[in-house]
Amino acid sequence: MSSRAFTVSDARYFPGTVALVNSLAISGNSVPLTVLDRGLTVGQRRLIEPHCEIVPHAGDRSALLSKFVAPGASDADVVLLVDSDIIVTGLLTDAIQVARSGAVYAFPDAAYPDRWFGEWTQLLELRAPLRRDAYRNTGFVALPGPGRSGLLERWAEACDRLAACDAEAGPEALTPVDTDPLQFEDQDCINALLMSEVPVDHVVTGPPHGMVMQPDDLRVTQVVDVEQLRCTWRSEPVTMLHAIGPHKPWQPRGGREFRPTAFTRCLLRVLTGPDLVVRIPERELVPWLRSHRAASTVRGLLHAYDALACATRPARHRLVARARGFAPSGRDHSPARPEGDRVDG
Fold first, then answer.
1. Terminal CA-CA length for the chain
2. Fewer CB atoms near the end CB (10 Å): N or C, the chain?
3. Assign residue 150 a region: left if phi > 0, alpha if psi is -120 to 50, beta otherwise?
4. 252-285 pLDDT tens trace
5. Could you count the other beta carbons within 10 Å of the beta carbon of residue 232?
6. Domain ranges of the chain
7. Residue by residue, what is the 3-state secondary structure of the chain?
8. Is residue 79 within 8 Å of residue 71, measured between CB atoms?
9. CATH code that applies to domain 1-345
10. pLDDT over 70 at 46, yes or no
11. Is pLDDT above 70 for 24?
């Protein structure tokens, strides 16, 4: 049975997409990757097109609500949906086997373990009663391909319904995350389906730290072998690292919070290592992600700044999150757009 990974990218997320491509190869995952192009430059497309299938997308809906366009049109038996801010550090064999069996594989969202809304039934026109279950993150999801279980199609339908409601309502007003049942868009949609229309025995939840994404957890995650991207969290194997946050480490505004973590160490490996599938010209990388000696000095200065700023960062983030109507989370709540960052709580 064929397996294929799918991601969504634009010009500002391109380094993250390249990191994903290279990490899949280095970690030993030979699964092909399809990229939904929401605004890559000609040069960026030229760099990755020998190694990925590129599907153009001219729609105006968010990246999170567009992620089904490419997989929905594919003939893959197993679909792996992967965000473009993830570095794969382990084999995806378990997830693929689960999806081949007709079930769904996803990692838990530690920030919202009990997120649940009875309103999902009416808002998403669910076809089965809601039950209480673990809330899962959609940075990575493995599920049966089109026509196999119907879940991919139902997830796309729910997101279509959400997109139509958004268009009808106009500009969105910020509401507290604990009172808005659909603030997490595609993630709320799939969780509602997993807690209703999908039988309990057809949902497999990965290890709690199989996908590490919270900043404190990324700090304590150990890079056992940077060349092979092998990582552990308190001796438990890690399958992927997820760069949540409003500013990504490869973006110009990401420098002020460039932290010495497992993600940033592995990011240097997959963007500047010696044996990469795709290599971005160093002049196109932010200064702290280049391989020369001066870049090491820049990284040292940024790490020193981070050490001073970390004491006040949690309080500052809580203030910003409260002002925006969000709570701290392991989820990118709004879509990547060419003109701006995603917004995290």
1. 39
2. N
3. left
4. 998 887 888 999 999 999 999 999 999 999 999 9
5. 17
6. 1-345
7. CCEEEEEEECHHHHHHHHHHHHHHHHCCCCCCEEEEECCCCHHHHHHHCCCCEEEECCCCCCCCCCCCHHHHCCCCCEEEEECCCEEECCCCHHHHHHHHCCCEEEEECCCCCCCCCCCHHHHCCCCCCCCCCCCEEEEEEEEECCCCCCHHHHHHHHHHHHHHHHHHHCCCCCCCCCCCCCCCCHHHHHHHHHCCCCCHHHEEECCCCCEECCHHHHHHCEEEECCCCEEEECCEECCEEECCCCCCCCCHHHHHHCCCCHHHHHHHHHHHCCCCCCCCCHHHCCHHHCCCHHHHHHHHHHHHHHHHHCCCHHHHHHHHHHHHCCCCCCCECCCCECCECCCEC
8. yes
9. 3.90.550.10
10. yes
11. yes
Residue 11 and residue 5: Cα distance in Å, rounded? 20
The residue that leads in pLDDT, 324 or 69, is 69
Residue 87 one-letter amino acid:
I
- CA dihedral 108→311→265→250, nearest 10 degrees, is 90
Q: What is the mean pLDDT of the segment spanning 227-251?
A: 95
Q: What is the C-alpha separation between 115 and 266, in angstroms, rounded?
A: 31
